[in-house]
Write a structure and sequence with these properties.
23% of the residues lie in helices and 37% in strands. It is of the alpha/beta class. The strands form two sheets. It has a ten-stranded mixed β-sheet with strand order 2-1-5-8-10-12-14-16-18-20, with helices on one face. Strand 1 and strand 2 form a beta hairpin. Helix 1 packs antiparallel against helix 2, helix 2 packs antiparallel against helix 7 and helix 9 packs antiparallel against helix 10. It is globular.
C-alpha cells in the first residue's frame, strides 16, 4: 500500500475519533476528496518542476503516533529562544505538551486548534476563518482533511501582544517513520500587533515528513511579524504551506531561515484585499550535502496603492539544490502598485545547483514593478582585499557571506532572534565571528 492509499484508508478512522463541529467535518470531507483526485504533486506539475517528492514518499510513515513521548525542558532548551519571555505552544510527535507550553486566554487566545474545533465559544471564528485562505492544492487539502491539532491564535482589536509567541513541533523517533500534519490559525484584529516564531525540529535519525498549513488573517492596520526557523536534521523533510490574507493598511512580514533538513518546500501565498497594504517576504538559505530547499511564493495585488517586497538570499555548497519560484500578480484595478522581487544566490562550488524563476503578471498600467535574480560566486577582488588585510581565507569568505545575507537579517525585529540566527549562520559557515550583524 502506497502512502496515498494509506492516507485515504485512514481518513474514516481519523474522522470517527476526533471531536469537531459539523462545519469542520464538511470541510474535511471535501478536502479528502480533493486530495484523492489530485494525489501528491509530481515534477509534471509546473510548480513542482524542480522538486521531486518520490524519495520522501517511499517511507512507510505512521499516520497516527502510537504513543506519546515526554521531553524535559533541559533536553530541548536550545531549540527555544530562551533569552526572552515568550508564550509557547509546544507539540511532541503531534501531541500538545502542556508542561513545555505557556498559553493564555487573558484578553486574547493563544491555545490549541483542537480546543477551537471542539468548544462552542470558538465556533464563530472557526466558521469565519478556518480554510478560508488555504487553496485547494493537493497538499494543503491533505492537511485540511487530517487537521486536528496545532496553534490557535486569536488577537482581538487594539491589542499589542507584549511577548512573542513560539510555536515548536518536536518529533522524537517513537515511530520508525512519522508523518505530521499540524494546522495553525492566526487571526489578528484591527490595530493589533503580534510577533510569532515557528520551528519544526526532529530529535531522531528516523525519517519525519511534516506537511504543515498556517493561515494568517490580518485585519485593518494590523501588524504581523512571522519568523520561520528551519534548521532540522538530514532525515527530516518539511512541506510548509502558509496563506496570508490582508485587509486595508495592514503590514505583514514573513522571514524564512532555511538552514537544514533533507527536503524543504515553502509555499508562501499573500492575498492583498484592501488599499495601502504592505507585504514583506524575506529569506536566507544556507545548505550543503544533498539538501534541497524550494521557495515558492505568490503575492496577489488586488487593490490599488499597495506594496510588496521579496528578497531571498541563497548560499549553496556541496551537492545541494536550491529553487526559487516567485510570482507577483497585479490585477487591472491594482493601480499604483509598488512590487519588488529579488533572488540572489552564491554557489560555493561547481556541484551545487540553483533553479530560479522570478515572474511578474501585470494587468495594470500605472505601477512600479521589478524583479531579478543573480547566480554567481564570491567576489574575488573583495576576497583579495580582505586577505591582504591579514584575514584568513576561510574567515574572509564567511565575512562576505555574512554581508551577503545582512539586508535580510537587518529587518528581524526581535534582537534575541537575530542574534540566534547570526550564530546559526556562523556555525553553518564553519567560523567563529566575534560580532553580531
Amino acid at each position: 500500500m502506497d502512502l496515498k492509499e494509506k492516507l485515504l484508508s485512514s481518513f474514516m478512522v481519523f474522522e470517527d475519533r476526533v471531536d469537531t463541529n459539523t462545519y469542520v467535518h464538511d470541510v474535511r470531507n471535501d478536502a479528502i476528496k480533493t486530495f484523492e483526485e489530485k494525489g501528491f504533486p509530481s515534477k509534471k506539475d509546473e510548480a513542482w518542476k524542480y522538486t521531486s517528492l518520490n524519495k520522501v514518499l517511499k517511507e512507510d510513515y505512521s499516520v497516527f503516533p502510537k504513543q506519546e513521548n515526554a521531553l524535559e525542558y533541559s533536553e530541548v532548551k536550545k531549540y527555544f529562544i530562551h533569552d526572552i519571555d515568550t508564550y509557547k505552544i509546544v507539540f511532541i510527535d503531534g501531541k500538545y505538551s502542556s508542561h513545555l507550553s505557556q498559553t493564555t486566554h487573558e484578553g486574547m487566545d493563544v491555545c490549541l486548534m483542537s480546543a477551537a474545533f471542539s468548544k462552542p465559544k470558538y465556533r464563530l471564528v472557526i466558521e469565519n476563518y478556518f480554510n478560508k485562505a488555504a487553496n485547494n492544492d493537493s497538499l494543503a487539502s491533505l492537511n485540511t482533511a487530517f487537521s486536528s491539532e496545532g496553534a490557535y491564535i486569536y488577537i482581538p482589536k487594539n491589542k499589542l501582544v507584549e511577548k512573542p509567541i513560539q510555536i515548536i513541533h518536536f518529533s522524537t523517533g517513537n515511530e520508525s517513520a512519522l508523518m505530521l500534519q499540524p494546522r495553525n490559525l492566526v487571526v489578528v484584529g484591527e490595530n493589533s500587533h503580534v510577533q510569532i516564531i515557528e520551528r519544526h525540529q526532529s530529535l531522531t535519525s528516523n525519517p519525519v515528513l511534516t506537511n504543515s498549513v498556517t493561515e494568517i488573517f490580518a485585519s485593518k492596520r494590523a501588524i504581523v511579524d512571522y519568523y520561520k526557523i528551519q534548521n532540522d536534521n538530514l532525515n527530516a523533510s518539511l512541506i510548509d504551506n502558509t496563506y496570508i490574507k490582508q485587509k486595508q493598511e495592514s503590514i505583514v512580514s514573513i522571514h524564512t531561515f532555511s538552514f537544514g533538513g533533507n527536503l524543504t518546500r515553502n509555499n508562501l501565498n499573500f492575498y492583498q484585499e484592501g488599499e495601502r497594504i504592505d507585504s514583506t517576504l524575506k529569506g536566507v538559505t544556507i545548505i550543503g550535502d544533498k539538501q534541497h530547499v524550494d521557495h515558492n511564493t505568490l503575492v496577489h495585488h488586488i487593490e490599488p496603492n499597495c506594496e510588496s517586497h521579496q528578497d531571498y538570499k541563497g548560499i549553496f555548497a556541496d551537492n545541494s539544490t536550491g529553487v526559487f519560484n516567485g510570482k507577483v500578480i497585479v490585477e487591472k484595478e491594482a493601480q499604483k502598485t509598488n512590487a519588488f522581487q529579488a533572488n540572489n544566490n552564491i554557489l560555493v562550488n561547481d556541484n551545487a545547483t540553483i533553479n530560479t524563476k522570478p515572474q511578474l503578471e501585470i494587468f495594470a498600467d500605472d505601477v512600479k514593478c521589478s524583479h531579478g535574480c543573480t547566480i554567481g560566486q564570491l567576489d574575488e577582488s573583495a576576497l583579495f582585499y580582505l586577505r591582504s588585510r591579514g584575514i584568513p581565507e576561510k574567515e574572509a569568505k564567511a565575512l562576505l557571506m555574512f554581508a551577503f545575507s545582512n539586508n535580510v537579517l537587518s529587518s528581524v525585529k526581535i534582537p534575541e532572534l537575530k542574534q540566534r540566527i547570526t550564530k546559526i549562520i556562523a556555525n553553518k559557515l564553519g567560523v567563529n565571528i566575534g560580532f553580531d550583524l
